[in-house]
UniProtKB/TrEMBL annotation:
Location relative to the cell: Secreted; Bacterial flagellum
Protein name (database record): Flagellar hook-associated protein 2
Ranges where the Flagellar hook-associated protein 2 C-terminal domain occurs: 247-504
Organism: Pontibacillus chungwhensis BH030062
Any one biological process term the GO annotation gives: cell adhesion
Record InterPro entries: Flagellin_hook_IN_motif, FliD, FliD_C, FliD_N
Coiled coil (residue ranges): none
Assembly description: Homopentamer.
Keywords in alphabetical order: Bacterial flagellum, Cell projection, Cilium, Coiled coil, Flagellum, Secreted
Homology family: Belongs to the FliD family.
Lineage summary: Bacteria, Bacillati, Bacillota, Bacilli, Bacillales
Annotated Pfam families: Flagellin_IN (PF07196), FliD_C (PF07195), FliD_N (PF02465)
Length: 514
């Protein structure tokens, strides 16, 4: 703890403080330089984030569905609806749905429990055996279910059942297997249900009378006897017929010429996916497929708007002059100011952070050229002016683009594929978006070399190295200032001691003379 002025009456603390203010001037300049470099680094990174956003949008603009998204409509939407891929041909289609695809289903022929009995689906089969109308053979519970694949080949799966399992355990085994069958018990009907999990007719072999869920009493006694589900029944005339219902393919007629069967209630033709919800009762459903002009216009407009936004911001920052009357504030200076005053001051001090930056200027110049260059593809449109996009005639706009929407809509309506090729190129020919991506990528790399990114190590980019150097210089200078301050105090302390000694001698002399 330092106390001065006891002998001299001088405010030594203030004197040393004033002297140190002069000594700290170089350190204040270093602190201001450090703040400026930090602001500049952050401004560069903000610019790179903007470039990265535009690059991402340019990449998205390379997808064909931006330009060729299709809309569909149906005059019988309750029966047939459609969706179209970007590659689908526009125009009208007719669909007559003769039959819907259905899932195969087989159920108990009658109730399976004795009158007045209620099954506990979670209890063991052994505990429930007296409740089954047709009984249950606890020594022969295993069974095999057979279903069929797309190519018509059979796919039998064996199920091992024990007497301590419950009915729900059996159903879970079936439902969780790869057999493709859903099994459950309906208490109200008192019946077991076996149902295919997908629609269609896959059994073309004739096995099990063509049933989609195959089994027989020899290897499925619990199914055929206890649960009362049969593969075949007598038609009343002594003929065996399939007991299973459903399991049929959908059938439809396309453009009054082509009749097609489908395992599912949907079918894809020429890039158009038709969904069947009902039969059309012998009538034709009319489906229209058209280009979604609104979607393409919206995407292109947003892309151009983002480009213009970044061009405006970048041009403003590289042309902005540094305000040399406003230096970055030191921590000491901020202590004497209000928050609003600091905010207003720093708004002026931050001007010109990216003034005349060559990396940003070259990126802007390169991007402007990419928009204007001819794109030689097989498409009808070679330049952006062909589709209603042109440069602003106001030189102050710095190369902003203007869209004449009516011309853009006309180009998309007449030949959306050519608009797509203009933006994305063809073969070895690069389109506008690919060229923009390259320009932006090069610009981002140049800026990262100067300012890095949030995950960069400081010694890997220029400003980071400069900041490290300034921090080291500030630390060394702080140590030197401490030494200087100690020296001042030592000098003033010596002076105080000398004056104190002189005062003591003077007082002693006066007392002797007095």
């Amino acid at each position: 703890m330092r106390i001065g002025g006891l002998a001299t009456g001088m405010d030594i603390d203030k004197i040393v403080g004033d002297l140190m203010k002069a000594e700290r001037i170089p350190l204040n300049k270093m602190e201001q330089e450090k703040t400026w470099l930090t602001w500049q680094r952050d401004a560069y990174r903000d610019m790179n984030r903007s470039f990265d956003q535009l690059e991402s949008m340019a990449s998205d603009m390379k997808f064909s569905d931006v330009y060729n998204t299709k809309t569909t409509s149906s005059n019988m939407a309750d029966a047939v609806i459609a969706t179209a891929d970007p590659s689908a041909s526009g125009g009208s289609y007719t669909i007559k749905v003769n039959k819907l695809a259905s899932s195969a289903i087989n159920t108990s022929r009658s109730s399976i429990t004795n009158d007045g009995e209620t099954l506990d689906l979670n209890a063991s089969l052994e505990s429930q055996q007296s409740k089954f109308k047709n009984g249950i053979n606890l020594t022969n519970l295993n069974f095999t279910l057979t279903t069929y694949k797309e190519d018509g080949s059979s796919s039998p799966i064996d199920f091992t059942i024990t007497k301590d399992m419950s009915m729900n355990d059996i159903f879970d085994k079936i439902n969780n297997s790869d057999v493709g069958v859903r099994a459950f018990y309906d208490r109200q009907a008192d019946k077991v249900v076996l149902e295919r999990t997908k629609t269609g007719n896959f059994n073309t072999s004739g096995e099990y009378l063509g049933a989609e869920i195959g089994f027989d009493s020899g290897n499925a006694e619990i199914i055929t006897n206890t649960f009362g589900i049969q593969n075949k029944v007598d038609d009343g005339n002594g003929n065996w017929i399939k007991a299973e219902l459903g399991g049929e393919d959908a059938e439809f007629t396309y453009n009054n010429a082509l009749t097609i069967n489908s395992h599912e209630n949907s079918y894809k033709l020429n890039g158009v996916n038709f969904q069947f919800n009902d039969t059309t009762n012998g009538k034709n459903a009319s489906i229209s497929v058209n280009n979604n002009i609104d979607h393409a216009v919206d995407k292109i407009t947003k892309f151009v708007a983002k480009y213009n936004e970044i061009v405006e911001s970048a041009n403003m920052q590289v042309s902005e002059r540094k305000n040399r009357d406003y230096k970055p504030l030191t921590d000491k200076e901020k202590e004497a100011m209000e928050e609003k005053e600091i905010e207003l001051w720093e708004a002026q001090a931050k001007k010109g952070l990216l003034s005349n930056d060559s990396a940003i200027e070259s990126t802007l110049f390169s991007m402007r050229n990419e928009w204007y260059e001819t794109v030689e593809t097989s498409g009808a449109y070679k330049r952006i002016t062909d589709i209603g996009i042109d440069t602003s005639s106001n030189y102050r706009d710095g190369g902003k683009l203007l869209i004449k929407e009516s011309d853009l809509r006309a180009a998309l309506k007449n030949d959306s594929e050519s608009v797509y090729k203009l933006f994305t190129g063809e073969g070895n020919t690069k389109g506008i978006t690919q060229k923009l991506e390259e320009s932006l990528s090069n610009g981002i790399k140049q800026i990262e070399a100067k300012a890095g990114k949030s995950t960069s190590i400081s010694n890997n980019f220029r400003i980071g190295k400069e900041l490290d150097t300034i921090k080291d210089e500030m630390r060394d200078f702080e140590n030197r200032l401490n030494q200087i301050e100690d020296r001042y105090w030592s000098q003033f302390t010596a002076m105080e001691k000398a004056i104190q000694k002189m005062n003591s001698q003077s007082a002693q002399l006066m007392s002797q003379l007095g």
